[in-house]
């Protein structure tokens, strides 16, 4: 089964709770998708982050759609894109070009399917770019502070991007490794989430800016 067929076979196209103007292929049974992803490949497969509308991504997508001038006419990078929710929001808000980056090939298949469902253009890139020079006017990322190593690498990239002149915005519901300094809060939301994946059905979620140091 191709990656695109796998995505469509195990999800259903439905509105995102906080961003109902965007449709995503989302898993109806979270644990079942996790298990199917693990058994579908003989190699090590990343968790199916692409099958869900995570709190940080929902908040960031909402913020971008409500403040389109942030991305309008600009080159946008959605880092660790997952489903592509944030990338799609940027495209709908008038970004000149949107790139969605992830290391999971199934994520890129989901991004392509979701972009098509929302009639927008998003370029998918399957690569770890965290050690490269940022090449975007705006860098967006949702729910990336879930491990110490990832948080450290992400913040290094964000600070490098901000130092090069990019606007850097991050959506996060208070993950364990969210930095306690170096961020400026822009907005907060009460975000409906998949209760079987989170510790609650609603997550208080903020949008943060990484300012230039």
Structure characterization notes:
The protein is an alpha/beta fold. It has one domain (3-209): Rossmann fold. Helix content is 31%, strand content 24%. The protein contains 6 helices and 9 strands; from the N terminus they run H-E-E-H-H-E-H-E-H-E-E-H-E-E-E. The chain has helices at 3-9, 30-39, 55-66, 85-92, 105-117, 148-163; strands at 12-15, 23-26, 75-79, 97-102, 123-126, 138-142, 167-172, 184-192, 202-209. A 7-stranded mixed β-sheet has the order 5-4-3-6-7-9-8, sandwiched between helices. Helix 4 (85-92) links the parallel strand 3 and strand 4. The chain is globular, with a radius of gyration of 16 Å. The termini are far apart. The model has no long low-confidence stretch (mean pLDDT 93).
What's the arrangement of secondary structure elements?
Blueprint: H1 3-9, E1 12-15, E2 23-26, H2 30-39, H3 55-66, E3 75-79, H4 85-92, E4 97-102, H5 105-117, E5 123-126, E6 138-142, H6 148-163, E7 167-172, E8 184-192, E9 202-209
């Amino acid at each position: 089964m191709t990656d695109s067929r796998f995505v469509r076979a195990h999800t259903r196209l439905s509105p995102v709770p906080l961003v109902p103007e965007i449709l995503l292929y989302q898993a109806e049974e979270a644990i079942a998708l996790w298990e199917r992803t693990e058994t579908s490949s003989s190699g090590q497969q990343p968790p199916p982050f692409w099958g869900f509308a995570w709190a940080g991504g929902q908040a960031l997508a909402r913020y971008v759609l409500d403040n389109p001038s942030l991305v309008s006419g600009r080159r946008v990078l959605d880092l660790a894109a997952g489903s592509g929710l944030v990338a799609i929001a940027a495209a709908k808000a008038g970004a000149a070009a949107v790139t969605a980056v992830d290391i999971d090939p199934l994520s890129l298949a989901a991004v392509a399917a979701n972009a098509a469902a929302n009639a927008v253009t998003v370029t998918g890139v399957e690569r770890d770019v965290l050690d490269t020079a940022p090449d975007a006017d705006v860098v967006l990322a949702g729910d990336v502070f879930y491990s110490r190593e990832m948080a450290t690498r992400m913040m290094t990239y964000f600070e490098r991007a901000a130092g090069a002149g990019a606007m850097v915005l991050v959506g996060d519901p208070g993950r364990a490794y969210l930095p306690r300094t170096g961020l400026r809060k822009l907005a907060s939301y009460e975000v409906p989430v998949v209760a079987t994946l989170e510790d609650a059905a609603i997550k208080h979620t903020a949008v943060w800016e990484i300012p230039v140091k």
